[in-house]
User: Fold this.
Amino acid sequence: MQDARVPKPMLSAEQAVMQMLAEVSAITQQVTVPLNQALDRVLAQPVISSMNVPGYDNAAMDGYALRAGDIQPNQPLAVAGIALAGHAFTDKVPSASCVRIMTGAALPAGLDTVVMQEQVTLSETDMQQQILCQFVPAVGEHVRRAGEDICQGAQVFAAGHKLRPADLGLLASLGIAQVQVLRQLKVAIFSSGDELIPPGQALPEGHIYDSNRYVIAAMLQRLGVEVLDLGLLPDDPAAIEQAFLRAMAQADVLITSAGVSVGDADYTRQILHKLGQVNFWQVAIKPGKPFAFGKLQACWFFGLPGNPVAAVVTLEQLVQPVLRKLSGEGGQPSATLLKAQCDVPLKKQPGRRDYQRGWYWQDTTGLKVKTLGSQSSGMLSSIANANCYIVLERDSGSLPAGEMVSILPFSVMLG
Assistant:
């Protein structure tokens, strides 16, 4: 039996994320939305194409549609007519003839090839246009076949796919005007602390402006969730408990900033124990050690540190993958670490994975990176002026300039 006086080892970042992902399940409620409101929504059902795309054989270039077998050395082809996009040539095309055709126009029946206009010589005799092809093309050249992009009956997108701008264009090309998506995840947030003052008000001595709520809300909006802002709360147990109760009634997730450490006025953790459960409350990362995960009946809880940079790092690195799963996103790609040469020495104590803020760039020798000033967890400028994290693993110590390090470019939440 473990001695209660000996603290449990802190979870690593990977262990924390894996434990949270194992606990949560995606929302299941579906809604129908018009295509022009579907950006960043998660598909509730697979999309199956009811048609071929393109729907007919058509020209990939401006030129002349013909039968490749009709082309003989020094034998011109008569131009029988013209085919335009939206205006097909429907007459029968005689042998040894061709049709002037524009990009996207339907290929006339019986023809199998398009020759670019730059590759023929055009002449006119007795009011009859003729072309002389300067080479023998391959059958099917410059022809887009029906179903070449998408075949009728094919799955276009799987359930759990998050719709991007190009996806909406593809759905529109299939004639789809509305889609079944999962409802948006609803995330409640609040900040707490008697030292915090809303922006726009005079700043009394010994106080700071509430910045966490603004950056957290903005990051959440990048994920496409619905944000319920419960405001800035004082260090008052009753007010914090009321915010918890409102989140439990109205939201899928509650994210707080500050109040999960062991200070005398850190009431968030106390209320969480009263109303719900705490799964863990420390993670071996820097910044961001005081991070809590738990549940309030049907509402999941994430308690972020109060220091602004620590709040940003834990939201992006620990909470983001869990919110994506809750939102129903499937097939989430894992973050890709890159290797870069660091231009400056790096300070670090072993014991926690460190996410130092940096700026990376490419030069003729490869990727380079540098830190940006102070790495204090209270200085948001180190995030605002950065484009990546320099990730130093748990057992790593300080490193001299010139070392190769792992970097993690900012995700969409910060990019």
User: Anything to note?
Assistant: Helices lie at 13-23, 165-173, 212-222, 237-250, 267-275, 308-326, 381-384. The longest helix spans residues 308-326. Residues 1-6 have pLDDT under 50 and may be disordered.
